[in-house]
Write a structure and sequence with these properties.
Layout: H1 13-20, E1 22-25, H2 27-34, H3 38-42, E2 64-74, E3 77-80, H4 108-111, H5 114-131, E4 136-146, E5 166-175, E6 177-179, E7 182-186, E8 192-195, E9 203-207, E10 211-215, E11 218-220, E12 228-238
Antiparallel strand pairs: 1-9, 2-3, 2-4, 4-12, 5-9, 5-12, 6-11, 7-8, 7-10
């Protein structure tokens, strides 16, 4: 049985993030926050049908497909950064940290989409509400986790932080799967929440300094049939991108 997420009303979002370190908003709230029709987001769905395999999985799995892009958001301005590697220190990602991971880029047409820019600006606004107004260094990851091998792991590194300020995890689609439960824990104690994102474009926001998070493995709803879970993960970091020192 899937547990529904505790939804936060849009006017209460900054307070909820400050108080608890996480918040979940429904799809309609995300669209309102960005000032865009929800249809502008659902129009991106074909992107997830064209994600190349993630060739950096150290557990030997072939269940993850992804693309990656980097942006700088300064007020209402969004600049696309030349394609770069995704890098995390081992202290934040014990499985895949310490290596430059090059993924295929997100399409240029996405960066030029006014709805995409509006979404980045809106969520950067939430990061500024949390840390103060400033320039934000944004990484975007489009993920598909599939069950072709029987099981897919959204977070093979386990419960983790990303080494940023704000993380936004938007569910894009769940197709014929079970599992994929989201778990959020206080980084300084045992308190936590568990729930399943089920509504397309419902979004989890995380204060990455205060909480750790993970998603449980997924399995096909019917043995032998393909299933997948699609997400868009956006991270906002002050001061610069994470890069090898």
């Amino acid at each position: 049985m899937n547990l529904s997420p505790p939804l936060t009303a849009l006017p209460d979002l900054p307070q909820q993030l400050q108080a608890a370190g996480y918040a979940v908003i429904d799809a309609a709230s995300l669209a309102r926050r960005a000032g865009q029709p929800l249809a502008a987001f659902t129009a991106w769905q074909p992107l997830w049908d064209d994600l190349p395999p993630d060739r950096h999985l150290k557990d030997g799995g072939r269940y993850r497909h992804r693309r990656h892009g980097s942006y700088i958001v300064d007020g209402s301005r969004v600049d696309t950064v030349p394609h770069r590697a995704h890098w995390q220190p081992v202290s934040y990602n014990a499985l895949h940290g310490g290596i430059e991971r090059w993924f295929e880029p997100l399409p240029a047409s996405l960066a030029a989409d006014p709805a995409w820019q509006a979404l980045l600006v809106a969520l950067a606004g939430e990061a500024s509400a949390l840390r103060g107004a400033q320039r934000w260094y944004v990484e975007a990851h489009a993920f598909r986790i599939d069950t072709a091998g029987g099981i897919g792991r959204p977070t093979p590194e386990g419960a983790h932080r990303d080494g940023v300020d704000l993380v936004a995890v938007a569910l894009v689609a769940r197709h014929r799967i079970k599992g994929g439960e989201t778990r959020v824990f206080d980084a300084r104690g045992p308190q936590g929440m568990r729930f399943t994102l089920a509504e397309p474009w419902s979004t989890l926001l995380l204060d990455d300094e205060r909480v750790i998070h993970e998603s449980t493995p997924i399995q096909p709803l019917v043995d032998g049939e393909e299933g997948h879970r699609d997400t868009l993960v956006l991270t906002f970091r002050r001061g610069g991108f994470q890069d090898p020192t």
